Queue: 2 jobs
Job 1
Amino acid sequence: MMKTARFLIAALVLGGFAISPAFAAGNVHIADQEWSFEGIFGTFDRAAQRRGFQVYDEVCSACHGLDFIKYRNLAALGFSEDKIKEIAAEKEVTDGPDDTGEMYDRPALPSDNVVAPFPNPQSARLANNGALPPDLSLMVKARKNGANYLYALLTGYKDAPEGVEVTDGMYYNTAFPGHQIAMGQPLDDDSVEFEDGAPTTLDHLAHDLVTFLAWTAEPEMEERKRLGVKVILFLIFFTALLIAVKRKVWRDLH
């Protein structure tokens, strides 16, 4: 059911991007980056994922949600049960009704979805000058060349070239089609401080964040790849077995 919902949302998001005039305007070059999860044997860098979640939690969560992720899912990143409880308890969710029929606020639990920054799309637009910050759960899948594109977007904020006029409320970004985007630059050097002493330059912050978002878009990726390798090995063995049987049968016939 969860996978079906992910597919439908991704299709809707992709459809929205496909017909967007801003996305169709202008060509941009997206450079390829090195990702630990690329290739048939690729896996997620757990330390980078945890740092990426920290970047999301301290910066991106002010505007963007993760509708398809529960706090307990963070165990896949290597967070302990106690740490997950601590992370969840920092947020509040509305629950109820209680015995008196009233709704009430309580600290979030590991079983809750990651708490959204706004209660509804209308309040989100009101807080962002009419722009609706998209949910980030499936963003890596929603964009062509998703991981590389998001990295380029996060690191692509520049001063507009001479002769280029940027519309009020927009920002110049070399990776965004049309080069004008409503989202201001979310990351900068030292925006977040990591406990493990990892570099906090813009490039590193963006790389860790995208690694985390690659996981939110496809948390089953490593399991799928392991299954794929097993299937390939089985097919190789089965093919070799069939060839051996064929040779034996034809040898006996001759």
Note: The mean pLDDT is 88.
Job 2
Amino acid sequence: MWHDATLVAAKDLRIEVRSRVAVNQVAPFAIAVLLLFGFALGPDRRTLEPASAGLFWVAVLLSTILAIQRSYSVEASDGARDGLRLSGLDPAGIFLGKAAAVVAELLALEVLLTAGIALLYGAHLSGWGVLVLTCVSATVGLAAVGTLYGVVASGLKTRETLLPLLFLPVVAPVLLAATKAFDAALAGTPSRGLGWLEVLVVFAVLYVALGIVAFGPLLEDG
């Protein structure tokens, strides 16, 4: 399983490096989201700074949808999806590999967005331990949910609109917990975010386990 996961993750990341979709489309989209929120709330940093954690995670959430759709769109033509299903790879390994590739892309994006909220919103970056752990655990949860529901939507003609409908309601706890943990860290009281961090870890573990079990049947049905 782990060997197959490494192969799939390496394949997806090589495709992204060569196509530069994440650099040319997803990253500019995420920055545009931050800028638009800034315009909507006004130039006063006293208004923007308290909202920076929530706006950060909304941008990540929307970018995750693009990353997941991209992850499956490369296999939607030329029978690549059937080839993946018939490759003999462990379905659990395929799930972990695709999720790991999305995690890597999102973590790189979150570094950029962290700089963005500091520059655009005047957020004071502190509590780095909680910030990093929140990013990792929340991103794993988002990638696991997205990869699981992405395989459900990828075989349908309405996949572009179905994936957000499936994905966004499920990850609402991630948005809430990650925002609260970030708020605590940025406010200089990271210990107050530990409880929310535990919620993120539990969510991530549950959906990774569910994906390992359910991805194979969903891939076959799709």
Note: Residues 2-221 form one domain.
